[in-house]
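Lecture notes, unit on protein representations.

Consider one protein chain, 400 amino acids long.
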Amino acid sequence: MAADNRHGAMFRVVVPHQHSRVTYAELFYDLVFVFAVTQISHALLHHFTPVGAVEVTLLFLAVWWVWVFTAWVTNWLNPELTPVRILLFLMMLGGLVLSTSIPKAFEDRGLWFAIAYAVMQVGRTAFWLVSTPHHWTAVRHNAIRILAWLSTSAVFWILGGLAEGETRLWLWIIALVIEYVSPAARFWVPGLGPSSLEAWAVEGGHMAERCALFIIIALGEAIVVNGATFAELSWTTENILAFVSALVGSIAMWWIYFHKGAEAGSEVISKSVESGKLARLAYTYLHMPIVAGVILTAVSDELVLKHPGGHSDPKTIVSAIGGPLLFLVGTILFKLSIRGFLQLSHIAGIVALLVLSWFASELSPLWLSIVTTAILIVVAAWESVSFGSASESHSEATSA
């Protein structure tokens, strides 16, 4: 019984409608993923071909998945305790191996990438299982289910690391499909069946804050890379305008996500009776295109900074329009999941970007950047004004 109490103490005590703050250990752990995001954007920048885009997308999906699965586990475990902190520090080591392997993951460091990823996923889940008291049957069964799925995918990760070329790519795609399908299948395994939605209850405010911080990581990485690139250039009028456009674009993205969406999401999931179901959809899946959009925009910013003049080439067009487009698609779906309706401002921004793609080749990279930034500003301002008016109307109705 004493052992059960000791293990049970590793879990957070969830108090309804109270927010569990993100711990310093979790923030420290996230630093590894600043490096991982940088590695992903640089990998795409240097391998911007159809095959290269598929490979980098796969690597991004793997990085996101290992991070978000850890966010789920630390939502249940208590990172203020030494054993959980040690787990996070070991995960940091694995994350550094994973991140440093990204540029050559499809060359001579594929096995290193695969081992680091598999050990992080399987090891963290095994720790969660061992930490769970035996009488917490539902939680233990959940851990067993997840461990079974991740162990199965780990086989394909390792086999892919041992293989080469196209075979590696296909084996890793199989591994990712297994992992991404698993939450939607509620981690069904023979004998135990699927997990119940009640077993996936989370502390909503904590989950919302964790994912919002990953958006900050992606935006921060973009600003750091843009600053480093700009510092090495001669400060011409074109370069200065490109730098300002990139910074303002990042600010607009921040505004679109954080001014209304992040707070609303945190409030809704904190009060939801199906917090696990909402967290699975809104934060586990729908945040992927948001983060991917920020990363792709960062690639565009660097391309524009280095070559602001002339006509835009396909690489610049795809990144300059595709980044904001992915971001807006992700945010509109995220806000739909928490508000129940589509944001008209976001629809207008998506349509404007699609229209822009028809004549983007006629614009210089600098002007393309300026126009996409202007579209993001309009979306941010439109949403702020519309929700500001709605809030005032609600206040007046309440006071009356």
